[in-house]
Amino acid sequence: MMISARNLHWVSGKKTILRNVSLDVQPGEFLGIVGPNGSGKSSLLALLAGLRAPASGEIMLEGVPLNRLSRRSLAQRLALVEQQADTSEQISGRQAVELGRTPYLSALAPWSSHHHEVVQNALCDVGMDALAERRWHTLSGGEKQRLHIARALAQQPRLLLLDEPTNHLDIGHQLALLDLVKRKPMTVVAALHDLSHAAMFCDRLAVMDHGELVALGPPGQILTEGLLRRIFNVQAEIEPARHGSGLNIRYLRPDTNAPCVLSNVQMAV
Question: Cβ(81)–Cβ(45) under 8 Å?
């Protein structure tokens, strides 16, 4: 599924959060959105998911304006896993994943064995089938995160939007999750913090800074020592990975004698 953004602006209060963001995400592509904290990554995902309306600009889903689609129709096409999501409801892990089938249920289309099979497959995909009957409040942060991913997979979306999906996960589950969504037959747009993971799994990277899209292209072309120094304010040495795709990024210790620049950081959410 293709999604396109044209000249997106978004304002919160009197502050401009996103400025003139345009991009096309091709069917089956894994696009990573990277940038410093507060650069606008989460805001861009919220607009692409239809949770917020841009102040100006347009989002097209396979050529159809996003705002012309009903919530039900949209939920049958795309799924979003937010950075902070929780519930106080007394539900089990399985019931949380079953919520992903809601867009397909109606009086004429009640719960069936097909829905149960889809949910079970999603639980198995994220390795949570053995813990599916546990109550939500007894699960760890990482286990809840894996269930959020399973709920999104249970929607059977053609477009999956992920906001920092590896939060709370140990390194093994981080790699397994990104490999899982990489192998799924769908388009993926994910905001990622770990640049090494972004280089390993993403087809292209969109670099955000101060609410603007400042670079877009393959990881090997985008992630340069100059860009990391300019956008992330870090010194690094970068070389191609010896095995498979990806880059080896070796960060250098900060220069403790350098002047403090944190007070000059502009924040966007």
Answer: no
CB 166 within 8 A of CB 177: yes
Q: What is the DSSP string of 139-181?
A: S-HHHHHHHHHHHHHHT--SEEEEESTTTT--HHHHHHHHHHH
Contact 166, 14 (CB under 8 A): no
Q: Which two tokens stand for residue 185?
A: 């037959």
Asked if 267 and 38 count as a contact pair (C-beta separation under 8 A), the reply is yes
Nearest to 141 by CA among 86, 100, 98: 86
pLDDT band of 263, cuts 50, 70, 90: very low
Tell me the residue type at 258.
A
> b or e along 142-178 (b: 16 or more beta carbons within 10 Å of the residue's beta carbon)?
ebbbbbbbbbbbbbbbbbbbbbbbbebbeeebbeebb
Query: Going by CATH, does the domain composed of 3-77+157-264 fall within 3.40.50.300?
Result: yes
C-alpha closest to that of 73 among 88, 56, 61, 57: 61
d(CA 36, CA 168): 19
For the chain, give every domain's residue range: 3-77+157-264, 90-156
Count Cβ atoms below 10 Å from residue 18 Cβ, excluding itself. Answer: 27
Single pTM value for the model: 0.91
pLDDT in tens, 143-160: 999 999 999 999 999 999
Q: Is 108 exposed, middle or buried (0-12, 13-18, 19+ CB in 10 A)?
A: exposed
